[in-house]
Each structure stands twice: as C-alpha cells, then as structure tokens.
Task: structure prediction
Amino acid sequence: MIALSLAEIAEVVGGQTYDIPDPSVMVTGPVVRDSREVEPGALFAAFVGERVDGHDFAPQVVAAGAAAVLGSRPCGVPAIVVDDVQAALGALARHVVRKLGTTLVALTGSAGKTSTKDLIAQVLRRKAPTVFTPGSLNNEIGLPLTALSATEETRFLVLEMGARGIGHIRYLTELTPPKIGLVLNVGSAHIGEFGGREQIAQAKGELVEALPEDGTAVLNADDPFVRAMASRTKAKVLFFGESDEADVRAENVRLTDTGQPSFTLHTPSGCSDVTMRLYGEHHVSNALAAAAVAHELGMSAEEIATALSEAGSLSRWRMEVTERPDGVTVVNDAYNANPESMKAALRALAAMGKGRRTWAVLGKMAELGDEALAEHDAVGRLAVRLNVSKLVAVGGREAAWLQLGAYNEGSWGEESVHVSDAQAAVDLLRSELRPGDVVLVKASRSVGLESVAQALLETGAEGEVAAR
Result:
C-alpha cells in the first residue's frame, strides 16, 4: 500500500485510535487479514468469523511487525477501532485508489472471470506495472485488499468483481470506480440465487452503469444479454467476440493436437496470429476480452498476440494440466463449476484426448436452484455426444443426475458410473487408468474434487511429475 500514517488512516475510516503512542507512525507494508501474511509495517484487519476472531491474533501480528490493527474493539496493542471493519476497509481502498489515479479495469461475468483477469494482467504488465486480483478474491473484502496492494508505481489495477445479488457490483464500483468495465457473459452460475438470466444480466450490467462518460465498456458481442448492456452506459463501447460486428475478433479458430486454441486476432489497429498455452476453445473468448482491454490501453495487435501466446494460468485448479511419468494426463479444473464452464471443460477434454481414452470425473454444480436437474442431465448427455470414454459421477443426487443424463443419451452401461465420494473415485481410477489416458476433474468448489487430482498425481509420482 502507499505509505499512510495511522492518524491519516483513522481519519479516512472514521476510527478511534487506541494504544498508539505516536499517530505519525507510517503503514508502509500491505493490508492483510491473515496473520500469517503480516510483515513489518503492515496493517492487520481483524475480522470476527464464525470460528476465528482476528482480534485474538493482535499481540502476535504486532510482535511480527504490524504497525497496528484495524478492528472493532481495543485489543491491548496499537489499534484503529471502527464500528464495521469491512466498511472501513472499503473506505480506505476508495481513498487510496483516488489518491493514486491509476487506470482501473474491472471485469465481471458468469464464467471465465479469473482466467480472463489473469490474461489481462499478463498482457498489461508488459506495458506498465500492473496489480491484479489474486485468485478469486472478488468480493467485498478481497477486492479492497487487492486495491490496497497498489503503490505509486502501479499504472494498471485489474479487479475481478463477483456478485450474488442485485446491488453487489454497484457497491464494489463505489469502492473502486472503474475506467474500463468488461462484461464477459451472462450464464447460469448462481441462477438459483438470482432467479433467472434476466436478473443476472441486471446485476452484471451495474458495472457498465458505473463507468464515466470518458470510460470504456468492453462487451461480448456474442452474448445477447451482454450486447444489450451497451444501452446502459454513456461510456464508449468496444465489442469483442467471433461476430463480424465485433471490434476485436477472432478468425480461423482451431485447436492444436494438444487442445490449445489458435486463431488470428483482429483489432482496429491490425491483426496477428495467436497460439495459446492454455487448453480449450473457451479461452478464445477470454483472450479476445483481454485483447480488447489491451487495445483500448494503447497496445498494438502484435504486442497483444505475443503476450497472449506466452500467457499461462496464474490461478490454481483451473484447467491445470499435468502429465504423470507413466503418460497419464490429469486436468485439474476443480476450483469451481457451472453449466457453461463444465461444458467448456468437457469440450477441451475431447480435444485433448483424440486417440486416447478420456475420463470425466464430475461432481455437483451448486446454486442452480430449479435448473439443477436439467443442467446436470445436460452435462451428462454432452459427455456422451463428445465421446468421452468414461464418466465418473461423484457425490449424491446431482451426481446421479449426471449419470442418468449420460445413460439416457447413449444407453451407456459400463461407460458411466456413480460413486459416493472422492475416495471411491480415486480407488476406481487407480485400478483402471492406463498409460496415455486423459482425466478431467471438475465440480463446484464445495465438493473438493481437487483431492482426486492430487491423489492421482501422487499415485503416478514414481519420478518427478512434469507440469506443462
């Protein structure tokens, strides 16, 4: 974070100082909420959770070098006390962002946010110092913590914004007002909470409504819900997609023999060829979104194409491809799942597995409400249509729906199996995998199927495992 005194911070957040002998002491380190991340000069935000109270760690973090604690009660060490730590964190982030004057890029969407954010960051940091959301810390706490990690050298601040209801993104944009707003898509993620795609579109569109007149809305021309958001902003609109109407578009899209997308990138400033290191055709749309942002910020088509071709995955368990010494390829995409990302992952598996046996180890997609049965059934059916060799459905009712969809689509017998839990899936795979097989592991985060991928890699680690 930029250096601020404890007195300045207290004024910004409307807090009272306790046990601070010298209010001019500067916070020169990061703002953190995890005591293990404290370093000299840090500010520790003490949250009260269901199982852990951050205030209990106050003596420990100050001993480790923290300048003070930002909390909701005095705790016997230097502290700034406020009524609401989350609100105070947001106020501090808003103050720092305005003081810095960096170009703020915000993005949202039902699927692909984290992968696209990682691509944008890797492209933009070739041009200037860039700070971006780590992992998926895209909520009311994670977003201000990311913003507060910016310094005077930061030129671009790339923030992922998530939403679970109307008004959530509006709140985030008030904390960190964007200059460029990117909306990727409107899908089925959290549809059980929102009630329908129209409501999801309403929530995601709050991002473009927050843009200033001299800002830019970057919108997916291939998604009718997103394309319609052009009418909700006074900012300039830049479209991306495979549509001929897109300002930034892809032509000659194809997949390499290993399932990596290749295409010709067209921007208003020129065109250039891209071959990505990531896996799956769905990354083309993500790459185009990143390219549109980079174009708007002054990068040439050649610079963008080079950066996209060299970009990798920065976040764990998202199409993380690892080859065991025995030739079995494990695709760990277990961080989260929704109908759109599940289908994209299956298509990537089919592309990667040409001439090889393919396994789809799939679990529940959460928060689908009344659409849950139909969506799980559809994923099971798609596995059959893509000629996936074997579906392993893991878990309870939703897993049974996955298997039933596969069975009804292709009258699969032994090609689909329903197992009770992750360990049962591991036991099955250990007994049946052959060298050269490709295994996709994917489910919503709550299912914890990353343990299956990890167990398979440990099983095959007779030598050093080579991650691509």
Q: What stands out?
A: Residues 85-100 form the longest helix (16 residues). Confidence is low (pLDDT under 50) at residues 462-468. The radius of gyration is 23 Å.
